[in-house]
Amino acid sequence: MQTYTITPETTDQHEGHRGYHGTGLVHSIETCGTVDGPGLRFVLFMQGCLMRCLYCHNRDTWDMHTDKAQEMTVEQVMKQVLSYRHYLKATGGGVTATGGEPLLQYEFIRDWFKACWEHNIHTCLDTNGYVLHYDDILDDLLDHTNLVMLDLKQIDPEIHKVLVGIPNTKTLKFARYLAERNQPTRVRYVIVPGYTDDDRSAHLLGEFIGDMENVETVELLPYHELGAHKWELCGDEYKLKGVKPPPKETVLHIKEILEGYGKNIIY
Fold first, then answer.
1. What is the pLDDT of residues 50-96, one digit of tens each?
2. Fewest beta carbons within 10 Å, which of 6, 29, 172, 247?
3. Which is it for the CA torsion 167, 171, 175, 177, positive or negative?
């Protein structure tokens, strides 16, 4: 099997990153997730991501192919999903595609979500919005997505570059596209001290999503260091070492700012 690494610098080269043959590269599976959408979730962590967030807690999902990634068919995944479907439905849950960045393998996610819909299973797409192709496949995927959880990491383009490593152009374009489709969306905002915990950043977010009627909820996620050890395992330096989670007062203050833009806030 061909192996390679996708980096932000090689995005254009790998826009069709691999021929799709009905399989997806899966990093791992969590069968009873509680923080990846409503209810209990069957969570599929996909391999590959083009962003380089300084606080990433899944550093080991960046490379598209590693020795630990598992190539799976939709049928193989669904066999596991169906064994949990009664627990998922009883809690108002379902399945969530995350990663990594699941939209890098959007053909597979499209096929998986369509299979879930055949069994009336709720589907959630957890994405950073880095969309490479706007086409029938993407629309078909979104047509079979009950909820999009979109990470808006920072609206200011320069701070976003420092925090994430690449511009936020593609993410903001996708956010507007979801609004045009009136796609049910929950925005996720990570409060990182020194990067996203200031009033200006919160107001920029509020102004950006204020008139987006499809954004039902904003979820505030306080920064944490729980994934720092994965950076060391991958041979990388964790540059936010020593940065502490924001105090509760900061979270509540940002909550108050965003509520001023008419959004329901959870944290």
1. 999 998 888 888 888 788 899 999 999 999 999 999 999 999 999 99
2. 247
3. positive
d(CA 35, CA 185): 16
Residue 257 confidence (pLDDT): 97
**Nearest one of 208, 218, 209, 220 to 246, comparing CA atoms:** 220
0.85 surpassed by pTM: yes
Measured CA angle at 107 (ends 140, 134), to 5 deg? 60
> pLDDT tens digit string along 143-178?
999 999 999 999 999 999 999 999 999 999 999 999
Share the mean pLDDT of the chain: 90
Among the listed residues 207, 203, 212, the one whose alpha carbon sits nearest the alpha carbon of residue 181? 212
**What DSSP state is assigned to residue 102?**
G
Helices 199-209 and 169-181 pack at an angle, to 10 degrees, of 40
Say which DSSP state 142 is in.
H
**Residue in the block written with tokens 């080269």:** 13
How many whole angstroms separate alpha carbon 126 and alpha carbon 51? 14
Contact 190, 55 (CB under 8 A): yes
Tokens linked to 50? 């083009």
